[in-house]
């Protein structure tokens, strides 16, 4: 086939696949299924037939035959042919050898070409076009011994070498390409692919430093690393293990570029569909001594390297002098530097006041520890050193040293947004470069030692400079990538000392100045560039003199760099330059506003839609982002949807967000083994081994949540579904992106991303929220703070010690009460908490917070001392979203603090941490009492514990509740079982009343005995022999350890038969009951509710959420508030007055809106934000009261001016939307709801 035919065929196949991409790799003529004997996207039908012929089969789940190892899909998730995807890097899959005696300690599982857009085995290049068909004799015959040694088959998988290697070649080997002699893709011949894999495996086992770098057993390795291994196979024909060559020291440093993530692995974008072309094979470096000293390479110099800083004969040395400048706004960003590495000494020469000499220790690949200074000035600095792609005649590297004593930044991108981090972009000449100088002697604070060249200069003044006119041919203005303000140093042999600044503006002007050398003046130019070659730049001075320059640009996701060569022959002046990307919000610490001009074409080339317009001379408009241009009116929402391509994030944008989140850093903290380890998160229904998120974070490497398709049982559901998991998903709203931040910087990156793309922002910690408030109707972005697990004990609360005499605890936003109780017990303290051990701290406190210690220690809102929160402010002058960090307390941001104490969650920003009061453990410990009582609904008055007994018991129960003091906190639960009603009538309907409470004190205290005995004998009128179940705990965590780990399960699906409605309101109807209502109306109201249950037994209601049609849900009757006798009732929080004064919180299940209004809602005007029904009319009044809500809304608008944050029935939501439909009114709603709406709106 000709190259022209090849070029034409690939688009044709892509078009075919776009129409219909389907099928598996075992679709070929030998497939026993007639419908699967041909597929044009199976590019290796002969190899497929070979697998069928050799019996490489197994029964599929339906009893038919399929190939083994299992066939792969011929299409990715976007319905593109997997055999046409580009190659960006490789996964070197190794496994510890515990099954093949005589083989090396680590054997090969596979060498897999991969795509940066893929994840694991998903969306990867498989079975690529123009890969060779399998040559059985050459591979299994000639290389059989090497395969058995390096690539043995584990017997436990019931596979044969023949079937396994056939599959590996067809799936992966056919896609194996590396950079060729001309830099484009070179296809590895079949035998070369296997020999390359052997070389890599042998090197991994022999090279300790390489093993340390690639300690992940499925790490990414660059295509240049595989190229290096391939070069070792050139000329190797042996078939015995001893003949396997080692990788060359000239190129093995390429294997230190990636590790296990894409942060430091530049995607190669190699075409996987090239034909086999021996003429493009990469060639080895000349090694004969007769070659001249300046001999060039026979193949292009490797463009990406990571010399590892560890001792080895197989790695490039890290020695010599690099010249650099500080890649940040302040500090080192004002100066030029020279870093010289000799042995273990780093000498820094600079024109700043801070030269220094440090001893450095090599911690591992890419990491240094500097020991600098002496005496009182002695200090340690952790540093990251990372090679970047070469440019022109220069090698490039990045050095980041954390001056604060904090650990080394995780990546180049992280360092650029780490306050207190000194960041340096470093350059040095390639060995073959001429006219390039890097002597450190010329860089000093004493002044320039180089001659000042004659230049056209003007003295800087405060007046606006006149533009330089330009009449040269070509396109007026600079190439789009050259626009911006560049920190620059001269690297030519006649360089001038010091940091320079080149400015290229969109109006076709350029200027050069030396910030630390004002006497050199400012040089101004008019700029144009060639219409045929955008790298050819012409600079015209005021006198008409034209300087010809060559511009080379290297894009990096945060901080890009370039080379500008100006002049000709020996008079060339070369500049090494760096600048922040104009569209990057990842380096606020390091970058200033001078480069904020999105749309000028110098963003990520994949997103530079306006580059053509800029190249044609069009001036960029003032920055105005979509989320600003479409700002909603009157507090409404204008969220972006997937149908709006103008704002919906592209794949490239999402990849940038992923890079900003340090995907290589393990997301640990969700694994749980057993008690006494505290559970880190709640357990969803049916999860294996009681793992949170259905085991999403159970892998040793931690959580890797990426979008994936899938369905079925939750334990087998997609990672995306598990990541978004929360309770009671009433609307089937799931996020487009889920972010699991590890730190403040990650949260800021997610917020900026969401604001740029007008995404609805939802926040969640554990997902315990009853009303699925952490769901956005348009998908949007969900920020899960569950991994923010920092914790510390503060013996004294400095802001006001009187508020926390026992000290305070500061917990990260991901803390759950099990962890908080465990930590507080270590300090002989207690914290006020909820009843459920896996409820998250943040949602509990923002909503109000009642629990087992509230009457004595206060509600959740009474215990908060300080909150750290990240918010999105108004866009800056350049149209960029601005993230603010605020600390809220009684003295700092007091209005915000007041609003967050009971104003509900999700709309104030993303909480990073909370500081809460510590309490002394009560003298005598924490006493727990449980009294279970059962009965029936039998109407006969003579029936023991029947319906009439219940009617008489409720007033006695209310009277007992009214006597409880601040030491008692109850959570009685009343449950009804109707399953036997159809066969036994009302006498077969049973009830169970479990009266559970805590007493803050010992079991011998008189009040403890009094309350227990009154419950047994006055309320329940139990026989004298009846006893309560009593326990005493020395700490709250002892109580936690007594509970089964699956006691508080998350219900992960919609418990209703359909969307929430007035007939099936969702969750529970709650009411806060005052002491007066408790005494006067509670007992009769409870019987009214039970009468509704009885009526529904006789006449089932098909609209009930109970499949049986009954209205007999359970009831919780908490007196775990601050309405008990002697409980403190502070008044400086946003909770409603009814919440503050309430004695009891009553949660009732399965009532309609009308039934709730006629019964429980008549007991009080307020409901509890965190435990209430999804459908609620007049919800603003029920949660906070009219005046309270107006105050909260004013604070919300002040602190979230862009209205980015939303949650259902939270501050800022539509007050008239009872049903949770922010995108429109309830469609087709008729009947009872209309009447209710009318009544409520009129009233």
From TrEMBL:
<dbReference type="InterPro" id="IPR018188">
    <property type="entry name" value="RNase_T2_His_AS_1"/>
</dbReference>
<comment type="similarity">
    <text>Belongs to the RNase T2 family.</text>
</comment>
<feature type="domain" description="FAD-binding PCMH-type">
    <location>
        <begin position="731"/>
        <end position="921"/>
    </location>
</feature>
<protein>
    <recommendedName>
        <fullName>FAD-binding PCMH-type domain-containing protein</fullName>
    </recommendedName>
</protein>
<dbReference type="GO" id="GO:0016491">
    <property type="term" value="F:oxidoreductase activity"/>
</dbReference>
<dbReference type="GO" id="GO:0003723">
    <property type="term" value="F:RNA binding"/>
</dbReference>
<feature type="signal peptide">
    <location>
        <begin position="1"/>
        <end position="19"/>
    </location>
</feature>
<dbReference type="InterPro" id="IPR012951">
    <property type="entry name" value="BBE"/>
</dbReference>
<dbReference type="InterPro" id="IPR050432">
    <property type="entry name" value="FAD-linked_Oxidoreductases_BP"/>
</dbReference>
<keyword id="KW-0732">Signal</keyword>
<dbReference type="InterPro" id="IPR006094">
    <property type="entry name" value="Oxid_FAD_bind_N"/>
</dbReference>
<dbReference type="Pfam" id="PF00445">
    <property type="entry name" value="Ribonuclease_T2"/>
</dbReference>
<keyword id="KW-0560">Oxidoreductase</keyword>
<feature type="region of interest" description="Disordered">
    <location>
        <begin position="443"/>
        <end position="475"/>
    </location>
</feature>
<dbReference type="Pfam" id="PF01565">
    <property type="entry name" value="FAD_binding_4"/>
</dbReference>
<dbReference type="InterPro" id="IPR016166">
    <property type="entry name" value="FAD-bd_PCMH"/>
</dbReference>
<comment type="similarity">
    <text>Belongs to the oxygen-dependent FAD-linked oxidoreductase family.</text>
</comment>
<dbReference type="InterPro" id="IPR001568">
    <property type="entry name" value="RNase_T2-like"/>
</dbReference>
<dbReference type="GO" id="GO:0071949">
    <property type="term" value="F:FAD binding"/>
</dbReference>
<feature type="compositionally biased region" description="Low complexity">
    <location>
        <begin position="444"/>
        <end position="467"/>
    </location>
</feature>
<dbReference type="InterPro" id="IPR016169">
    <property type="entry name" value="FAD-bd_PCMH_sub2"/>
</dbReference>
<dbReference type="InterPro" id="IPR036318">
    <property type="entry name" value="FAD-bd_PCMH-like_sf"/>
</dbReference>
<dbReference type="GO" id="GO:0033897">
    <property type="term" value="F:ribonuclease T2 activity"/>
</dbReference>
<dbReference type="Pfam" id="PF08031">
    <property type="entry name" value="BBE"/>
</dbReference>
<feature type="region of interest" description="Disordered">
    <location>
        <begin position="614"/>
        <end position="637"/>
    </location>
</feature>
<dbReference type="InterPro" id="IPR036430">
    <property type="entry name" value="RNase_T2-like_sf"/>
</dbReference>
């Amino acid at each position: 086939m000709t190259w022209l035919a090849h070029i034409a065929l690939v688009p044709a196949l892509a078009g075919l696949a776009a129409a219909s991409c389907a099928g598996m790799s075992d679709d070929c003529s030998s497939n026993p299924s007639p419908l699967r004997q041909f597929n044009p996207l199976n590019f290796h039908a002969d190899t497929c037939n070979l697998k069928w012929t050799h019996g490489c089969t197994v029964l599929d789940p339906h009893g038919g035959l399929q190939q083994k190892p299992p066939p792969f899909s011929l299409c990715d998730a976007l319905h593109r042919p997997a055999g046409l995807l580009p190659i960006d890097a490789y996964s070197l899959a190794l496994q510890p050898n515990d099954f093949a005696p005589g083989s090396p300690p680590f054997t090969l599982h596979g060498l897999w070409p991969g795509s940066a857009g893929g994840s694991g085995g998903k969306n990867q290049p498989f079975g690529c076009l123009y890969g060779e068909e399998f040559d059985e004799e050459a591979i299994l015959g000639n290389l059989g011994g090497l395969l058995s040694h390096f690539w043995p088959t584990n017997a436990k998988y019931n596979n044969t070498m023949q079937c396994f290697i056939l599959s590996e070649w067809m799936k992966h080997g056919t896609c194996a390409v590396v950079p060729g002699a001309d830099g484009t893709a070179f296809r590895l011949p079949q035998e070369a692919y296997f020999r390359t894999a052997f070389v890599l495996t042998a090197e991994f086992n022999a090279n300790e430093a390489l093993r340390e770098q690639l300690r992940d057993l499925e790490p990414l390795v660059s295509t240049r690393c595989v190229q290096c291994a391939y070069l070792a196979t050139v000329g190797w024909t042996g078939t015995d293990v001893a003949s396997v060559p080692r990788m060359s020291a000239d190129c093995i440093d390429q294997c230190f570029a990636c590790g296990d993530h894409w942060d430091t692995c530049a995607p190669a974008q190699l075409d996987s569909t090239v034909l086999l072309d021996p003429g493009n094979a990469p060639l080895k470096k000349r090694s004969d001594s007769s070659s001249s000293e300046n001999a060039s390479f026979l193949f292009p110099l490797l463009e990406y390297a990571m010399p590892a800083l560890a001792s080895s004969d197989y790695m490039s040395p890290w020695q010599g002098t690099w010249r650099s400048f500080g890649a940040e706004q302040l500090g080192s960003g004002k100066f030029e530097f020279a870093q010289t590495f000799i042995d273990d000494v780093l000498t820094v020469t600079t024109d700043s006041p801070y030269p220094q000499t440090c001893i450095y220790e090599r911690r591992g690949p890419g990491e240094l520890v500097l020991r600098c200074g002496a005496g009182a000035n002695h200090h340690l600095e952790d540093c990251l050193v990372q090679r970047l792609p070469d440019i022109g005649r220069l090698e490039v590297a990045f050095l980041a040293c954390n001056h604060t004593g904090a650990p080394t930044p995780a990546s180049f991108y992280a360092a650029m947004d780490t306050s207190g981090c000194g960041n340096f972009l470093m350059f040095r000449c390639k060995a073959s470069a001429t006219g390039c100088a890097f002597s450190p002697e010329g860089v000093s604070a004493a002044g320039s030692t180089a001659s000042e060249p004659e230049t056209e200069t003007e003295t800087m003044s405060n007046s606006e400079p006149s533009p330089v006119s330009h009449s040269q041919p070509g396109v007026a203005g600079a190439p789009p990538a050259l626009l911006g303000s560049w920190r620059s140093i001269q690297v030519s042999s006649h360089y001038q000392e010091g940091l320079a600044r080149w400015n290229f503006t969109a109006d076709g002007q350029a200027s050069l100045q030396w910030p630390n050398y004002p006497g050199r003046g400012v040089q101004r130019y008019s700029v144009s560039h060639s219409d045929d070659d955008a790298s050819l730049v012409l600079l015209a001075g005021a006198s008409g003199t034209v300087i010809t320059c060559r511009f080379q640009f290297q894009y990096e996701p945060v901080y890009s760099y370039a080379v500008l060569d100006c002049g000709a022959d020996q008079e060339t002046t070369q500049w090494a330059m760096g600048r922040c990307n104009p569209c990057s919000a990842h380096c606020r610490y390091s970058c200033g506003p001078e480069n904020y001009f999105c749309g000028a074409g110098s963003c990520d080339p994949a997103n530079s839609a306006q580059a053509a317009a800029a190249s044609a001379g069009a001036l960029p408009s003032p920055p105005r982002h979509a989320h600003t241009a479409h700002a909603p009116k009157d507090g409404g929402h204008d969220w972006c949807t997937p149908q709006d391509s103008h704002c919906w994030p592209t794949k490239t944008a999402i990849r940038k967000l992923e890079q900003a989140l340090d995907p290589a850093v393990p997301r640990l903290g969700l694994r749980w083994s057993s008690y006494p380890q505290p559970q880190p998160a709640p357990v969803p229904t049916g999860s294996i081994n009681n793992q949170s998120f259905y085991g999403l974070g159970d892998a040793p490497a931690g959580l890797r949540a990426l979008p994936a398709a899938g369905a079925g049982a939750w334990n087998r559901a997609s990672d995306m579904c598990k990541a978004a998991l929360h309770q009671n998903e009433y609307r089937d709203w799931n996020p487009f992106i889920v972010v699991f931040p590890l730190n403040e910087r990650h949260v800021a990156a997610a917020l900026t991303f969401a604001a740029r793309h007008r995404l609805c922002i939802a926040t969640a910690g554990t997902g315990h929220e009853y009303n699925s408030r952490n769901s956005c109707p348009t998908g949007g972005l969900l920020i899960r703070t569950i991994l923010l697990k920092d914790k510390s004990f503060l013996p004294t609360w400095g802001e006001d010690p009187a508020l926390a005499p026992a000290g305070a605890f500061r917990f990260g936003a991901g803390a759950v009460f099990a962890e908080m109780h465990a930590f507080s017990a270590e300090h002989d303290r207690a914290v006020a908490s909820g009843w459920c051990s896996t409820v998250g701290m943040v949602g509990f406190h923002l909503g109000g917070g009642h629990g087992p210690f509230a009457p004595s220690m206060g509600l959740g809102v009474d215990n908060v001392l300080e909150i750290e929160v990240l918010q999105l402010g108004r866009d800056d002058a350049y149209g960029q979203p601005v993230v603010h960090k605020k600390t809220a307390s009684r003295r700092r941001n007091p209005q915000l603090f007041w609003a967050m104490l009971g104003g509900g969650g999700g709309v104030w920003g993303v909480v990073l941490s909370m500081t809460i009061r510590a309490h002394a453990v009560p003298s005598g410990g924490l006493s727990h009492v449980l009294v279970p009582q059962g009965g029936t609904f039998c109407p006969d008055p003579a029936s023991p514990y029947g319906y009439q007994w219940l009617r008489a018991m409720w007033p006695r129960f209310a009277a007992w509740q009214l006597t409880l003091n601040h030491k008692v906190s109850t959570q009685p639960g009343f449950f009804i079982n109707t399953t036997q009603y159809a066969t036994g009538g009302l006498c077969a309907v049973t009830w169970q009343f479990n009266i559970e409470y805590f007493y803050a004190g010992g079991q011998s205290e008189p009040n403890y005995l009094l309350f227990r005995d009154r419950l047994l004998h006055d309320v329940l009128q139990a026989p004298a022999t009846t006893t309560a179940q009593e326990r005493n705990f020395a700490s709250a965590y002892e109580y936690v350890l007594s509970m089964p780990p699956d006691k508080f399960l998350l219900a992960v699906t919609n418990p209703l038969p359909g969307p929430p409605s007035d007939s099936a309101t969702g969750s529970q109807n709650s009411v806060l009951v005052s002491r007066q209502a408790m005494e006067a109306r509670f007992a009769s109201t409870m019987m009214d509710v039970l009468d509704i249950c009885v009526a529904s037994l006789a006449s089932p209601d098909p609209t009930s959420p109970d499949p049986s049609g009954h209205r007999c849900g359970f009831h919780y009757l908490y007196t775990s508030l601050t309405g008990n006798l002697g409980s403190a009732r502070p008044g400086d929080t946003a909770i409603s007055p009814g919440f503050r004064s309430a004695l009891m919180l009553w949660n009732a299940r399965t009532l309609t809106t009308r039934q709730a209004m006629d019964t429980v809602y008549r007991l009080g005007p307020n409901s509890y934000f965190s435990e209430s029904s999804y459908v609620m009319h007049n919800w603003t009044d029920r949660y906070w009261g009219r005046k309270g809500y107006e105050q909260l809304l004013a604070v919300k608008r002040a602190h979230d001016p862009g209205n980015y944050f939303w949650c259902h029935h939270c501050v800022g939501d539509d007050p008239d939307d009872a049903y949770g439909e922010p995108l429109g009114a309830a469609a087709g709603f008729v009947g009872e709801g209309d009447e209710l709406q009318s009544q409520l709106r009129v009233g």
